[in-house]
Fold:
Amino acid sequence: MATARGFTLIELLVAIAISSVLLGLAIPSYRSFQSGQALEQAAKTLETNLRFTQSQALGGVKNCGSGTLLGWFITQSASSYTINARCGTTLGTQRVVPLPQGVLLASNASGRSVLFRPITNDVVLIDLASCTPNCVTSPLPGSPGEAILTMSSAQAGRSYEIRIRTTGDI
Structure:
């Protein structure tokens, strides 16, 4: 007597249906996890770049040609941020850091750049567009006591805050 080996059509269909349901539940969770990881990495990169910018200012590194180094600054937009040095009215080489898709950057000092001044290790919030060399010596009227950069991702449902105090603490 021969015995049949294998699966019936009904058993295969049930196994495929169960696999499809499990896969349908796993994909959204994976996407949320992936978005959260991208947000976390972007926040850590921003913090590292803030410390880099601060160390360049403290070290008096000039990449902006001749003139007195006024400082190094970070200017943010919603989808990227830029690192520059400034000597008088001359800007140094720009370093633009794009943010991952779905990650947004906001600040309590909207429209203002975070400037790390050389030697003093303090931070000033400046309006770079209308800044003259003397705007670096004192904060803008109405400037908050610290800059708060907030990275968020709606898809991940999380956000990170990085606080930069006027004393230079990050």
Notes: The first strand starts at residue 69 and ends at 76.
